[in-house]
Amino acid sequence: MSPSIFHRAVQRAAAHAPWSAAARRDTLLLAAGVPLSAPVLILLGLPRLWFVLVAFLPCLDLLSVAQRSRLRALRGLLIPSRAPRNAGWWGKVRAGLTWRQFLYHLVVAPLQTLGALLVLAGWGIGLVMATVLGWIWLMPAGAPLQSRPGWAVADGWTTLGGAALLFLTPWLAALLSRFEEWAAGSLLGLNRAELLQRRVEDLAESRAGVVDAADAERRRIERDLHDGAQQRLVSLAMNLGLARRTLKDVPAEAMRVIVEAHEEAQAAIDELRDLVRGLHPVVLEDRGLDAALSGIAARCPVPVRLDIDLSDDIAPTVEAVAYFTVSEALTNAAKHSRASRVELSIRQRDGRLHIQIHDDGIGGADAARGTGLTGLRKRAASVDGTLAVTSPHGGPTTITAELPCEL
């Protein structure tokens, strides 16, 4: 045996010694499961078992919760429940009525209890056997146990057997503990399909939270720019305009500087307004999606025919996505399509927002050519929506988006 193998064997033996912390933890885990399995063992011994089991079904979820708590407290093992989040009492009971939980509580847990009793018996019997010589020697001289012929040799072997039992019991406890962790994780927790579904739900929920947070941050930046920098620029432009109109006796060079500064301030205001509108339109919060889309259509150079039917409330993030989708689509139609008219239809049906933008232009819209359609698809996907573009060469172009009304 090489030194490294011998060293690992010694370390492994020391880790499972009777006085080791691992032996105490394993024994405690098994012993804590005995009272949780006792009710099932009692029921299995009663007559009319089927009737008792039916009456016992609502308690299965409580037992599962207790078993998960035991493993979490003593092992740090987190076993997720099959019950949906925010499920009521009956929903949790129904989630617990699976063959896997039945198998755990009616088969695995009783067997584990018998194993735990065996481990506890091993500790007790081993301790008594290992110390037999000690407490026999402490007896008064001439005691019956000391009068047996060959008692010292026989009890010496008993002591060795007890010591061996004390050293073997931790290995049995470790084996049963590992089996307990595996069985509880497999039968009381989620299977692979359920884990993936729960993961998808968590990711969808976290994505919705990120989208909402990003939209809220855009609204905050928009308010800060509107109430801060934009107001200062407007005030600056007004002062420069007043100076431009009233100052008549300044040199021509100074007046030219004032005029240029006034024009630059006005251009900066226009750019800042476009930036603010691109972050989050104020009209969405003030007057709603219907009015915001009507404003976009009115500003479009191409005549737009509106058909809007909105009834229920729509999440603010979804309203923003719908607004930017229509705005980008109308901008593309005005710049690239050579269309003479655009038809905009927005309908709210079955909790979904259906948007269709149709123009009679030359077509050929391609997301790969930087027309903004790729960004629109990403915006729609960020709220679990879809966007499709049909634009053959020669036209017409139809953009269809479908968004959830609530995230």
TrEMBL record:
**Main EC class of this protein?**
transferase
Q: Where is the Histidine kinase/HSP90-like ATPase domain?
A: 317-407
User: What Pfam families does its record include?
Assistant: HATPase_c, HisKA_3, Sensor
Q: Which InterPro entries match?
A: HATPase_C_sf (IPR036890), HATPase_dom (IPR003594), Put_sensor_dom (IPR025828), Sensor_HK_TwoCompSys (IPR050482), Sig_transdc_His_kin_sub3_dim/P (IPR011712)
Q: Which UniProt keywords apply?
A: ATP-binding, Kinase, Membrane, Nucleotide-binding, Phosphoprotein, Transferase, Transmembrane, Transmembrane helix, Two-component regulatory system
What's a single GO CC term here?
Answer: membrane
The cross-references to CDD domains, in alphabetical order and at most eight, read: HATPase_UhpB-NarQ-NarX-like (cd16917)
Q: What is its EC number?
A: 2.7.13.3
What are the transmembrane regions? 27-44, 114-137, 157-176
Superkingdom per UniProt: Bacteria
What is catalyzed by this enzyme? Answer: ATP + protein L-histidine = ADP + protein N-phospho-L-histidine
What are the GO MF terms of this UniProt record?
ATP binding; phosphorelay sensor kinase activity; protein dimerization activity
Q: Which PANTHER family match?
A: NITRATE/NITRITE SENSOR PROTEIN NARX-RELATED, NITRATE_NITRITE SENSOR PROTEIN NARQ
The name on file for this protein is histidine kinase
* Species the sequence originates in: Kitasatospora camelliae
